[in-house]
């Protein structure tokens, strides 16, 4: 369902439902929610890589063969049971999504909620919900227009038609394309590169970047100053400056 392993200070989560093209069913959604909460509280995890088994699909979307919930929508939405399976908004630890094959519907929404996106040359991306009389329900309509130009985002959401990997790279939907079957390894290398930096500083930068989507420039710069000040006396910042002066690698402890 959802495999987990550690590579240094990186947690690697792997969706394991290849027979359904790694579609998201309620059990997988619960496993993802649990993983986000658990890893957020784990001091030994600094970066998370999210990927899936196989090369056909990262996730083909919601599992349409799963019977719908018998609970009313009001009971779910207003009863505290509507938390999405995607990376929570404001999540402090960087999440890298490594995409092989299809990222459709819920799969694309899951990818969009991550911080960095790496894809194989065979990847394809779509929000096809309108084709089955539905709409994206896990942030797709809200995030796609923040990730790529508005006109292209609207075309994807209104037609349901996919774009290929090269187009996604040109639009900035993904930051890098790699050969089929190598996305996991490349994502781990990138995660290790991030882990070599001071983790509290990485989280502060992530908060500042997230805030830039919501604040005007003056407020964003003020917030950035507050984050800078919060790190000034941290052990890691002192260690970073000392290591630089002593011409040695720093040893960070997230303190």
Keywords, separated by commas or semicolons:
10 helices, 6-stranded mixed beta sheet, globular, alpha/beta, 42% helix, 16% strand, 4-stranded mixed beta sheet, 255 residues
How would you sum up this structure, described in words?
The protein is an alpha/beta fold and 255 residues long. 42% of the residues lie in helices and 16% in strands. It has helices spanning 26-40, 73-77, 106-112, 140-147, 150-159, 165-171, 183-195, 199-212, 217-231, 235-246; strands at residues 2-7, 10-15, 47-52, 57-59, 95-99, 102-104, 116-120, 124-126, 163-164, 176-178. The model has no long low-confidence stretch (mean pLDDT 92).
In short:
The protein contains ten helices and ten strands.
Topology at a glance:
Layout: E1 2-7, E2 10-15, H1 26-40, E3 47-52, E4 57-59, H2 73-77, E5 95-99, E6 102-104, H3 106-112, E7 116-120, E8 124-126, H4 140-147, H5 150-159, E9 163-164, H6 165-171, E10 176-178, H7 183-195, H8 199-212, H9 217-231, H10 235-246
Parallel strand pairs: 2-3, 3-5, 4-6, 5-7, 6-8, 7-10
Antiparallel strand pairs: 1-2, 8-9
Helix pairs in contact: 3-4, 4-5, 8-9
